Structures
1.
Amino acid sequence: FRNGVSKSHTGAHIVHQSLRQVLGEHVSQAGSNVTPGKFRFDFSHTSKVSSNELDEIFQLSNLKIFEDLDVDTKIMNIEKAKKEGALAFFGDKYDNDVRVVNIGNFSKELCGGTHVHNSHDVGLIVLLQESSIGSNLRRVEMLSGFLAFEFMSNAYNSFKKVANILQVQPSEVSKKLNSQLQML
């Protein structure tokens, strides 16, 4: 259970930083839920996230996973953590000493949760959906680890079945479907 949660929790930190890089530094966490193999991340943002932005966010997130970034934690004074650029939710109350989680040079946040030791331990992140949950609040729901692999495997098998029905190679499915739809 703890191992599965740690994959999702580290994945949430990676997605948070990816959101900030793609959408802007105004993005901040508004909530999250991490469970083995699944997580959701709520964040502040003023508009719908486009398909291209979502692709970029999840390509960057998975790239960082595959870069084998070390994940380490340090206990330090909160003022030092702030000076070093650690993200914190300053509406929250913190003690003088805080736990800072670093994912390589990519992400640095205050966090007391469980994490993997290296980003590659997350395995893979798959986006299930992005939605609005209120005024200027968005949510992304994702899979991690084996559940992400299983989802991708099932999706690819379905895609191969469609290719077989259309009697084309998988790389030709969209071209064939477009051709079929134009004849209607």
2.
Amino acid sequence: YAVFDFGGGTTDFDYGIYRLPNDQEFDEGWDDIIEHFGASGDRFLGGENLLENLAYLVFKNNQNECRDKNISFTKPLDAEAFVGSERLISKTQAAYTNTTLLMSKLRPLWEGGEIIFNGENDVTSLTLLNRDGERVECEIKIPVSALMLWLQERIRDGLRNFFTALKSSFEQERGRLPQEIHILLAGNSSRSR
């Protein structure tokens, strides 16, 4: 078996063999045997981390609006800084609030694959906090196609890591891959589109 536990914060991988007991194990009272021999994971591949990265990409895409209105936001631990980001990225309460507000707006995109705009096709009005803590109306462009492409690629990277660790675990423990492996999906993020 292999478990792909795609949670809110991380994705955990677990590998092993589930089998019926041999005669001695059966005599000892065992009905089933699970031999666990491998675990791994991706500490940034979780629903909330992906949402935080989506918000960061949207802010990056709207950096001129953020500069003009003195809006700051946070940078996820696994994201890369961009030219000029030092003026926009902050660890203030306003920056955390702005990131959280945009994550809330993007949640339907992550969970259901679509987002409802209250403006033009790909523009939404969002009330954010400027660096002085004042509420400011912003017109935020959300590049849905680019975000979906980023999500697909990031999840694809996580799957590559899963299968690499799976191969390594089975080869290290058994010397080869078995004919068949049952992959079990777990975690709330597995429900997302």
